[in-house]
Amino acid sequence: MFCLSEMEDTVRVPPDLLNLPLEVAIKKVLQKLLLNKVLSIGLCVSIYDIKSAEGGFVLPGDGPATYKVRFIIVVFRPFVGEVIAARFKESDSNGLRLTLGFFEDIYVPAPLIPRPNRCEPDPYNRNQMRWVWIFEEQEYIIDDSCQINFRVENISYPPVPTEQAEDAKPFAPMVITGTIDDDGLGPVSWWEGCSERNNEDDDT
Amino acid sequence: MKNIIVKANAGALTNFEVLDLLNSRGASKDTTRVIASETVSRSEYKVYDYLMETAASTQTRDSVTKFSDKCKGFKLAKAEILNIINLRPSSDVELTPILERPDEREIDIEGILALVQELLPPLPTLEAHKENEQEETEDGEQPNMETSV
């Protein structure tokens, strides 16, 4: 789910950083600008390397030194079809929301939750709905008790809204839609010790 | 800042490689780290925390490279190999969602699982739970751990 990306940009290094070695100073500026930000290519997770920096001119009337920098960053950008281990964050009548800690906008919409299922108010959390999968008369609750494996269906980068309602959810610049509707997906506890069962009801 | 993307994909990284990178920067499980660390930022620590709970935390560069090489004989796509390394499936049912149309291709599922077992160490918490030597242990069975929000 991670990859390297090479970029080029103009970086302004403020005067207070100029006593540091150039590479360190540029890295600091890049970190402030890019770390944990969503770019068109995904979420920038780390600055990997500075390949080159040229320039260093100070423009008239300007304090910072300007450099043209070529650098490599580590980006979080899963591929469609990738199976990822995540944790349960919350759920509502639309579906589930999963999290990786550093990325929390993973949604499993209701149609991608295995059926038959039902959605009921969560007895432990008044504000939440919880989902329960019903299989062979057994009920499997989806909650935060264990890791949940999901498969990436789609990644979207919604455009920044020009206005938002007061109580709207914070804007998510990168949204991953996942599915848990397949053998081996969903809470890992569902599949424990299943290799024996699997031989009988192999219906793939 | 007008970012110019020179190369959107300059190489895929396994979770192991990202963890290795953060480790080399000085990331650790030490509780004083968040205040003290100059080289690893808070957001990078969130990635570190996530990766430490996955198979990547018990892998080595050597085992990952060896595994990749040996996978060549199994006719898997690069993305599938990467996914297997990251997820470390230990049973048939964990491996199949990773593979694309497994029924149409003749994939040696048993062979792949045996290779995983041989070369990739089990997940961190699994060592604690493993009393008997049952091979078909499910990966990822973890007690309800902290959610790093």
From TrEMBL, chain A:
GO annotations of cellular component type: RNA polymerase III complex
Pfam families the UniProt entry points to: RNA_pol_Rbc25, SHS2_Rpb7-N
Domain RNA polymerase III subunit Rpc25: 82-191
Residue stretches spanning the membrane: none
InterPro entries named among the record's database cross-references: NA-bd_OB-fold, RNA_pol_III_Rbc25, RNA_pol_Rpb7-like_N_sf, Rpb7-like, Rpb7-like_N
Entries under Gene3D superfamilies matching the protein: Nucleic acid-binding proteins (2.40.50.140), RNA polymerase Rpb7-like, N-terminal domain (3.30.1490.120)
Domain RNA polymerase Rpb7-like N-terminal, chain residue ranges per copy: 8-63
A biological process from GO: transcription initiation at RNA polymerase III promoter
Subcellular localization: Nucleus
Record key words, sorted: DNA-directed RNA polymerase, Nucleus, Transcription
Superkingdom of the organism of origin: Eukaryota
Primary location recorded for the protein, binned into one broad class: nucleus
Function field: DNA-dependent RNA polymerase which catalyzes the transcription of DNA into RNA using the four ribonucleoside triphosphates as substrates.
Family, per entry: Belongs to the eukaryotic RPB7/RPC8 RNA polymerase subunit family.
Protein name: DNA-directed RNA polymerase subunit
From TrEMBL, chain B:
GO biological process terms held by the UniProt record: transcription initiation at RNA polymerase III promoter
Pfam families: RNA_pol_Rpb4
Gene3D superfamilies (alphabetical): 1.20.1250.40
Residues of the RNA polymerase Rpb4/RPC9 core domain: 5-126
Location(s), subcellular: Nucleus
Keywords: DNA-directed RNA polymerase, Nucleus, Transcription
Superkingdom of origin: Eukaryota
Keyword field contains 4Fe-4S: no
Entry GO terms, CC: RNA polymerase III complex
Keyword Transcription: yes
Family statement: Belongs to the eukaryotic RPC9 RNA polymerase subunit family.
Protein name: DNA-directed RNA polymerase III subunit RPC9
Classification lineage: Eukaryota, Viridiplantae, Streptophyta, Embryophyta, Tracheophyta
